[in-house]
Amino acid sequence: MADSDTPRLPGLLPDAIHHAVKPGTALLRLETTRERGGVLDGAWWPRSRDIGAELPGLITALTEHLGPITRVGLDASAWEKLPTRLIIEDRVVRIDSFPVGDDTVLITRGENDHFALLVVPPDATPDAARAAMARAVRADNITRAEQILIDTGTPQA
Q: In terms of Cα–Cα distance, which of 55, 40, 59 is closest to 118?
């Protein structure tokens, strides 16, 4: 059976998502296995700490592939002016402040389907960001976000 004949499961991204991340062209990678067995489900590389400017793009991309996103959990100390909710594409997305650290964002699809994403600091170099993002989406990854950033030489806030 050719790859093109293989049915794509809902919620999984095509293999093309694994191409090199270049500044300004890609900001998100997700693990594409059915099991979601790693510590992290993906990685996000925002361009700033302005959540009002950065979050709509993330939510739009996630919604396209995963369905409606209802909540986002962030560490308030890592972001400028963290609101309690945003309206993105006519949907209310609630924003919760958790002491998760600035290296992780928690995404909720529906009521209880949670995704943990590594947050690559905005000032990371392209090479460090690519390395951190690639490691975060490995299906066998058991390394926590903070350690991935340390191991890949990605500067932390």
A: 40
Tell me the pLDDT tens digit for each residue of 69-89.
999 999 888 888 888 999 988
Instruction: Judge whether 104 and 30 are in contact, CB under 8 Å.
Output: no
Q: Average pLDDT, stretch 119-144?
A: 89
Please report, in angstroms and rounded to a whole number, the separation of the first and last CA atoms in the chain. 47
Residue listed under structure tokens 């296995």? 33
Whole-structure pTM value: 0.77
**Residue in the structure block whose two tokens are 């998100």:** 28
Q: What share of the chain is helix, strand, coil (3-state, %, to 5)?
A: 30, 25, 50
What is the DSSP secondary-structure string of 112-147?
A: TEEEEEEE--TT--HHHHHHHHHHHT-TT----HHH
38 neighbors 25 (Cβ within 8 angstroms): no
Which is it for strands 113-119 and 42-44: parallel, antiparallel or unpaired?
parallel
